[in-house]
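Researcher: Let's do a round of design. I'm pasting the structure tokens now; please hold your answer until I've finished.
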């Protein structure tokens, strides 16, 4: 049983199992489509080619932007070039259907040129994806600027050579010619069926094994690339068993490739979503760290004053803003007798008590060593005094046992209250007035609440 669970959890087994499911769904969908549509329109192949061209353009732009954001990911240049070259070669494929938009000239198709562009496209993509995997393997090795630029230039030169060679072989050169399809009978030539197709399948197998061995399917990005390689092996296998260019296998291969590429785009979009989510969480954590006191997780002084200034901007008699400044009584004795670690526990305990004692729209902050401040929105002086009194009584009721050892002995707190009923007063004046009331509480015996008069 454990052995079975280990196999299921293995990422490689899960990957290939998932690929079988997706390929099975695509194959089943195609067979259902064949039942519903007995014959395919000649417009189908160029239409699917246009969709595939747009998809590859999207992936090329996506990879280029990722490289632009992180220049250390040199392997992204190879992938971007692979899909850019593929897009250009598919443009050549469309040129093999010069009158495909003319509803009365479907037969004007150069299938040999289309197959030439198809062959060079697979050769280009397989080689560059293998090269991208090799670059990924050495991603942590520092490369000199000259080496970096040289690799990029080599990738661009290879891509340009493949595109130019495909263009020359497709009837644009009297010297470079190759016959892969008989345009009269639409039959695949022996050179394609028994040599080139097999070589391309082997090349994509090499790409598949290289990707799995080097990337180990670490994330969805490489899972998508590996899945694409497997899809190309399947599409080439379909053509291997097809007899001619208008055979159903030709349409199935292109429909399958288009659907598989769309799945790759969805995987990349999901990867982008995960990156955005992680980035957003990190931003939120960073922002919270910038406005929170690291020990108590209450708001810090700067955030408190910003929030208070915003509330005071709309303060009036019917919408008062109250400020409560509090200070722990004889806190220095806690540090001297029990140590600073115990003192930190006391501060954390008081901070939690303050947060539990106010509403979500109120602000609790630590503005000094053992000095805390509360901002109570839309709260008059009497209500603020009641809140402060409730906090004072609650804190004084705890001892060492009832606080689970966070308080080494009973702790008291002195609190001063000030209420602003006008927007003309500043945040500093509010805190200063509440601070004066708090010191009055200290001077008149501690452990009490004083309202500023």
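Researcher: That's everything. Go ahead.
Model: Designed sequence:
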């Amino acid at each position: 049983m454990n052995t079975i669970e280990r196999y299921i959890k293995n990422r490689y087994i899960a990957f290939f199992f998932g690929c079988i499911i997706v390929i099975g769904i695509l194959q089943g969908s195609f067979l259902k489509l064949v039942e519903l549509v007995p014959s395919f329109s000649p417009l189908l192949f160029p239409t699917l080619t246009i969709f595939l061209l747009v998809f590859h353009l999207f992936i090329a732009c996506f990879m280029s932007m990722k490289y632009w954001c992180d220049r250390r990911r040199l392997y992204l240049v190879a992938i971007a070039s692979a899909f850019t070259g593929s897009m250009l070669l598919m443009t050549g494929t469309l040129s093999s259907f010069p009158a495909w938009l003319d509803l009365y000239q479907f037969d004007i198709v150069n299938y040999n040129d289309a197959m030439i562009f198809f062959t060079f496209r697979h050769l280009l993509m397989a080689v560059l994806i293998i090269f991208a995997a090799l670059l990924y393997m050495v991603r942590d090795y520092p490369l000199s600027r000259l080496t970096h630029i040289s690799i990029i230039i080599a990738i661009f030169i290879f891509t340009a050579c493949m595109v130019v060679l495909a263009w020359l072989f497709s009837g644009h050169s009297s010297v470079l010619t190759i016959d892969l399809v008989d345009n009269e009978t639409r039959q695949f030539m022996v050179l394609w069926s028994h040599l080139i197709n097999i070589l391309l399948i082997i090349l994509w197998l090499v790409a598949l094994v290289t990707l799995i061995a080097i990337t180990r399917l670490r994330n969805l990005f490489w899972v998508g690339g590996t899945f694409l390689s497997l899809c190309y092996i399947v599409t080439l296998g379909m053509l291997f068993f097809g007899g001619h260019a208008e055979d159903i296998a030709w349409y199935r291969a292109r429909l399958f490739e288009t659907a598989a590429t769309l799945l790759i785009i969805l995987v990349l979009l999901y990867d982008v979503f995960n990156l955005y989510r992680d980035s957003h969480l990190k931003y939120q954590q960073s922002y919270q760290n910038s406005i929170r006191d690291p020990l108590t997780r209450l708001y810090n002084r700067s955030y408190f004053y910003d929030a208070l200034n915003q509330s005071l901007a709309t303060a009036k008699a019917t919408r008062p803003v109250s400020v409560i400044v509090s200070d722990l009584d004889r806190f220095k004795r806690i540090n001297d007798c029990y140590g600073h670690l115990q003192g930190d526990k006391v501060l954390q305990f008081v901070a939690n008590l303050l947060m539990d004692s106010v509403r979500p729209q109120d602000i609790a902050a630590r503005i000094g060593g053992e000095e805390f401040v509360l901002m109570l929105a839309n709260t008059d002086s009497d209500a603020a005094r009641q809140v402060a009194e409730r906090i004072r009584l609650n804190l004084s009721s705890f001892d060492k046992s009832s606080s689970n050892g966070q308080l080494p002995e009973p702790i008291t707190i002195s609190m001063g209250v000030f209420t602003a009923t006008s927007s003309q007063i500043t945040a500093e004046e509010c805190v200063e007035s509440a601070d004066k009331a708090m010191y009055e509480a200290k001077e008149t015996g501690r452990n009490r609440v004083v309202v500023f008069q």
